[in-house]
Design goal:
Layout lengths: L1 H9 L1 H16 L1 H35 L2 H8 L4 H14 L7 H10 L4 H13 L2 H11 L1 H25 L17 E3 L9 H5 L4 E4 L2 E4 L6 H13 L5 E3 L5
């Protein structure tokens, strides 16, 4: 019973969805079957797309320098950053939900909220393949005017969101206990095993999750841990230096 309550607490949305399915199944079995078929289709789509997305987030976290993200998409990137975000969102493939893990990774690396909103907006409504189909069915003039008005709206929304929403309002980092020096956020960990590969004496894998094996001390050890924290694709490692 305790494990069930813990599952419900950690998966509130999933629990609500399951309850909704049960209610619909009781009221109208045919509609419930139709809903399950629709959900199965989107689940299959996600299983195909999300591994590629997670791989891309690993590349961003591990290979793209934070300084580069700040320069290109940060608060001071200006109109250049806005245009770069527009292009990135426009040439991306896949449904918009695939953009969320990538965008959270970019935010952690220093991208501004404004540019993230522009990426999401462009990803959702002005992708290049979609524009080609729009021009084919509705005409070039319709597509061009709609594109211009949409871009203006996306930019305006980005600037407005940056005023209303701040990074501190987003779940970018896990709040750690002040006594904790090194810890893994189990909810964030995706089980990639990267930390255990880099520092096998510090981290190990248990039940497809990373755990802290030992806490080393010293300047060199802290430097290695800090580098590993930066490379974690899910931002799941909480690290506080002893002197802090």
């Amino acid at each position: 019973m305790k494990k069930i309550l813990e599952f419900i607490k950690k998966n509130k949305l999933l629990t609500l969805v399951l309850i909704a399915y049960i209610v619909v199944l009781i009221i109208s079995p045919e509609k419930a079957l139709s809903a399950v078929k629709g959900s199965t289709y989107y689940l299959k789509e996600m299983l195909i797309i999300m591994p590629v997305v997670f791989l891309l987030t690993v590349v961003i976290e591990a290979l793209v320098p934070k300084k580069l993200i700040i320069q290109g998409l940060g608060e001071k990137s200006g109109i250049t950053g806005n245009l770069l975000s527009l292009v990135f969102g426009s040439i991306s493939a896949g449904p918009v939900y695939a953009a969320f893990p990538i965008c959270i990774s970019l935010l952690r690396k220093g991208a501004s909220i404004k540019n993230i909103v522009i990426i999401l907006g462009a990803w959702a409504v002005i992708k290049v393949p979609m524009l080609a189909n729009e021009a084919k069915f509705l005409g070039v003039k319709f597509m061009a005017i709609r594109w211009v008005l949409t871009v203006i709206s996306i930019f305006a929304m980005g600037y407005l969101m940056a005023i209303i929403i701040k990074k501190k309002d987003l779940p970018l980092e896990k709040e750690e206990d002040t006594d904790t020096i090194l810890a893994i956020n189990e909810d964030y960990c995706i089980g990639c095993g990267l930390c255990a590969e880099i520092l096998p004496k510090v981290f190990e894998m248990k039940d497809s999750k990373a755990v802290v094996k030992a806490i080393p001390y010293g300047e060199e050890a802290e430097k290695q841990i800090a580098e590993t924290v930066e490379k974690c694709p899910a931002n799941a490692i909480g690290f506080t230096k002893a002197e802090e």
